[in-house]
């Protein structure tokens, strides 16, 4: 076993045994979640799409079983909500009836992207633009509950978690048989176009009261197991993701100057998860997958799930989600979070 793999196994052991405890009030009064299948907790369950995970073996390690989470247990944002002190997981927008929406809503949707067309070859999804519209609806409901004078003060204190963009590559740019973007843009031009559209949504969130933004970069999408029979990563895909990340980090610096009453941070997902994503592809995935790279319904997954970085061919297992969540919340080195981590952001 080489040194890199040994380090990864140690990290897995440490974080797979981590326990999260809740003491007192949450560190922020509310948490709003925007993203894709990495954060989806059930918004796709009733959509006409192949991108859904409300069946076994998904959720095999989650207390409530399959919920629509694309992993065996907790997602990264589930773990972050634990670390923030919430005594419950933020409900999906599709299931907010009777819940306290003033404490937050999860708008994330599997296969969704920044661009409206992203992922639609699989069926319906809720793009970033539609997630923003859903947030407008929730804000109006919260305003009726708290009153117009108090709603902005409340929303200003919330954490806004945004983790989206992978599908704009995996389920758009690198699928030329379904989407024309690869023929219209080179990699740098596409990253510019994506970021330009993304920042319009971020500005819209700011106008709706958001002041604490946690923006997650893309992982090394060229190293996911889907479509691979060996340990080789597709460097073209990784370079594209890093282009996007560099531009997103620049947006963070720019917005921190343009909006002095707000704070934006960048979480460097690619660096945090680099070791886990470059392991032997033959042992990466835990569940038996179909041609779409997702788990085959009701097939028995692997037993030693803490040793498998991926649950299916696209989505990390809970143990990797724990690593990412802990490093994003309390970054041990500056390269993981810029200009600060989530634990410092929520204290502002």
Brief description of this entry?
With 348 residues, this protein is α/β, with parallel strands linked by helices. Helix content is 37%, strand content 7%. It is built from twelve helices and six strands.
Strands, helices and their partners?
Blueprint: H1 3-16, E1 31-35, H2 76-83, E2 104-106, H3 128-146, H4 148-156, E3 159-163, H5 167-173, H6 181-184, H7 187-207, E4 212-216, H8 235-258, E5 263-267, H9 269-272, H10 274-277, H11 318-329, E6 337-338, H12 342-345
Helix pairs in contact: 1-11, 2-11, 3-4, 7-8
Q: Could you give the order of strands across the largest sheet? A: 2-1-3-4-5-6
Write the element-wise H/E pattern from the N-terminal end onward.
Answer: HEHEHHEHHHEHEHHHEH
Radius of gyration: 19 Å
**Main pleated sheet:** 6 strands, mixed
Average the pLDDT over all residues and give the rounded result.
Answer: 92
Total strands: the figure is: 6
Helix content: 25-40%
Shape annotation = globular
Q: Please report the number of helical segments.
A: 12
Kindly report the name of the CATH homologous superfamily.
SGNH hydrolase
- Specify the CATH class: Alpha Beta
Total separate domains: 1
Distance separating the two termini: 44 Å
> Structural class given helices, strands, pairing?
alpha/beta
Query: Can you tell me the residue ranges where pLDDT is under 50 for at least 5 consecutive residues?
Result: 1-22
Say what the CATH topology is. Rossmann fold
Please tell me the CATH architecture by its name: 3-Layer(aba) Sandwich
Q: What portion of the residues fall into strands of 2 or more residues?
A: 5-15%
Subcellular location: Secreted
GO molecular function: hydrolase activity, acting on ester bonds
Keywords: Hydrolase, Lipid degradation, Lipid metabolism, Secreted, Signal
InterPro entries: GDSL, GDSL_esterase/lipase, SGNH_hydro_sf, SGNH_plant_lipase-like
């Amino acid at each position: 076993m080489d040194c890199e793999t040994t380090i990864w196994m140690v990290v897995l052991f440490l974080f797979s045994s981590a326990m999260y405890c809740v003491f007192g009030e949450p560190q922020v009064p509310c948490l709003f979640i925007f993203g894709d299948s990495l954060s989806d907790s059930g918004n796709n369950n009733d959509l006409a799409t192949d991108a859904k995970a409300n069946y076994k073996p998904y959720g095999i390690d989650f207390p409530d079983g399959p919920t629509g989470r694309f992993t065996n247990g907790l997602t990264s944002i589930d773990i972050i909500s634990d670390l923030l002190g919430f005594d419950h997981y933020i409900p999906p927008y599709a299931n907010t009836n009777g819940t306290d929406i003033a404490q937050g809503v999860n708008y994330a949707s599997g296969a969704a992207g920044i661009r409206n067309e992203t992922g639609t070859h699989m069926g319906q999804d809720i793009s970033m633009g539609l997630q923003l519209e859903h947030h407008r609806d929730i804000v109006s409901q919260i305003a009726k509950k708290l009153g117009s004078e108090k709603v902005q003060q409340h929303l200003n204190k919330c954490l806004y978690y945004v983790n989206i963009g992978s599908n704009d590559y995996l389920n758009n740019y690198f699928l030329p048989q379904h989407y024309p973007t690869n023929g219209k843009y080179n990699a740098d031009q596409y990253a510019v176009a994506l970021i330009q559209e993304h920042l319009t949504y971020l500005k819209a969130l700011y106008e709706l009261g958001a002041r604490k933004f946690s923006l997650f970069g893309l992982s090394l999408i060229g190293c996911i197991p889907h479509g691979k029979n060996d340990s080789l990563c597709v460097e073209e895909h990784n370079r594209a993701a890093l282009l996007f990340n560099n531009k997103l980090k620049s947006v963070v610096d720019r917005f921190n100057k343009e909006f002095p009453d707000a704070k934006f941070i960048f979480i460097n997902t690619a660096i945090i998860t680099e070791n886990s994503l470059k392991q032997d592809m033959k042992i990466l995935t835990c569940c038996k997958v179909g041609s779409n790279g997702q788990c085959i319904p009701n097939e028995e997954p692997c037993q030693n799930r803490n040793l498998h970085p991926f649950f299916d061919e696209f989505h990390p297992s809970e143990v990797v989600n724990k690593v990412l969540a802990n490093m994003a919340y309390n970054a041990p080195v500056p390269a993981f979070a810029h200009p600060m981590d989530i634990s410092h952001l929520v204290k502002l």
